[in-house]
Write a structure and sequence with these properties.
alpha/beta, Alpha-Beta Plaits, Rossmann fold, 2 domains, 8 helices, globular
Length: 290
């Protein structure tokens, strides 16, 4: 995927600089930005080219709520490099999820104590999100471990490394269909499926529009992606969800939960009992079709 970096320069009194940075990051997220780096006099934000909403960004800066703050920015294309190269080389330590699933770096030997877990998932991450190290991934896997997935058909939206679909299959699901806008992610998902010897997993390259090429409905729809895409694609999730199906969403902050719940409700989806879980500032919501 192609990224643009915005270097935001903030001019203000020192005592309001940190507040201005926080508010600016929140406003930029509304315009599609998904990652930020701190700078002495501002922040750098990163956004997928196709998700950048410059009108929303400029309006939020124009209406910035702190008086006396001036914000300017410069947009730069990010070179097509593997941002995760160093991380991939070093790998990650095994991750215990709910005492039932152990996610480990497939490039390293299987942990000696691995027999204690019901499900083992080896992941080789290559420029793709999803190893279990992130709070949102762990929460979605936790939800899966608490469900009866036997014979279920699963949709994995924005599949990344394929970890969620692989977990679902190893927990009893019959079939998983995934998609991702990043070709690296599609290839990485297929590679990790092979490593984990799961066969009933197919992957499409593209956004939610690929669902027009998929027949039938799904018992469980999983979407661990950013808030803006969740809001935009909620109706697609509803359209492909079985009449008593479950929607699991994550990838957003706790502060965004109410907005997403309202959007889901608008499409006839009801929050389940105990369907809100959080980890640090991140959130996961579980809905039933109604």
């Amino acid at each position: 995927m192609k990224y643009t970096a915005a270097k935001f320069t903030i001019t203000c009194q020192d005592e309001v600089m940190e507040s201005a940075k926080d508010l600016l990051a929140a406003s930029a997220a509304e315009a599609g930005f998904e990652a930020f780096e701190d700078m002495p006099q501002g922040i750098t934000g990163y956004v997928q080219d196709e998700l950048l909403d410059k009108i929303v960004l400029d309006k939020s800066i124009e209406d910035f709520p702190i008086e006396g703050v001036e914000i300017t920015y410069v947009l730069e294309k990010v070179p097509d490099t593997n941002w995760n190269a160093t991380w991939e080389e070093n790998g990650f330590e095994p991750i215990d999820i709910n005492g039932k699933v152990l996610v480990f770096d497939a490039k390293k030997p299987l942990p000696a104590e691995s027999g204690s877990w019901k499900v083992l998932i080896g992941i080789e991450a290559q420029m793709a999100f999803g190893t279990g190290t992130h709070e949102t991934t762990r929460m979605v896997v936790e939800v899966l471990t608490e469900m009866n997935l036997s014979g279920k058909r699963i949709l994995d939206c924005g599949c990344g490394t394929g970890i969620l679909g692989i977990a679902a299959l190893k927990l009893g699901a019959e079939q998983v269909v995934g998609y991702d806008i990043d070709e690296w992610a599609v290839n990485n998902t297929l590679h990790n499926a092979e490593i984990n010897r799961v066969k009933e997993l197919s992957v499409f390259h593209g956004n939610s529009s690929v669902l027009s090429h998929v027949n039938g409905v799904f018992d469980v729809v999983m979407a661990n992606i950013n808030r803006n895409i969740l809001m935009e694609d909620m109706h697609h999730f509803k359209d492909v969800l079985s009449s008593d199906g479950t929607l699991i969403i994550s990838g957003f902050y706790k502060n965004d939960a109410a907005m997403l719940e309202q959007e889901a409700k608008r499409h006839g989806l009801s929050l389940t009992e105990g369907g809100v879980r959080t980890n640090d500032d991140w959130c996961c919501l579980v809905f039933k079709n109604s």
